[in-house]
Amino acid sequence: SKFWRYDPTAKPPVKNAYPKQISNWEGVPNDLDAALHYTNGYTYFFKKGSYYRFNDRTFSVDIADPPFPRPAGYWWFGCRSETKGGITGEQHNNKHDDDVNGGGRRLWPQGRRRSDDLSDDDVTDLIMDGGESTEDLRV
Q: Which InterPro entries match (predicted)?
């Protein structure tokens, strides 16, 4: 699989060096559904209901418990009826998790909740899956 990095502030918004191989991202699978770079220093990759948190400083998928990939329903979208993943597949028990606060509400940057007014400024780049196409990107 291939991807393009789209930066709406750049002219042109996609550099000529793209597309590039997804395999450049260690620990991230091919055939992704979506990806985004967030202002917290992580890039999030989504595939088939799960997500990978990629640490941009170490250039690797984060090591965590439960490990990545994690179910996006529970960890990303805050659906408490979904399992947390991991070996036991346990459901939410209102303990502090690294991606949600103790009250079971998803925390967003700077302590905001998703229901707060969030601007698109929190997402710095979008990474789009280019599939298996061998065509050149024309900008």
A: Hemopexin-like_dom_sf, Hemopexin-like_repeat
Assigned token pair, 66? 């439960």
Average pLDDT, the chain: 72
∠ CA 67-39-50, nearest 5°, is 30
pLDDT of residue 5: 87
Please say whether the beta carbons of 58 and 64 come within 8 A: no
At residue 131, the 3 state secondary structure works out as strand
CB 54 within 8 A of CB 61: yes
Domain spans of the chain, in order of start: 2-131
Q: ∠ CA(120), CA(63), CA(97), 5° rounding?
A: 65
Give the integer Cα–Cα distance in Å for 36 and 127.
6
Angle at 113 between CA 111 and CA 117, to 5 degrees: 105
What pTM does this model have? 0.60
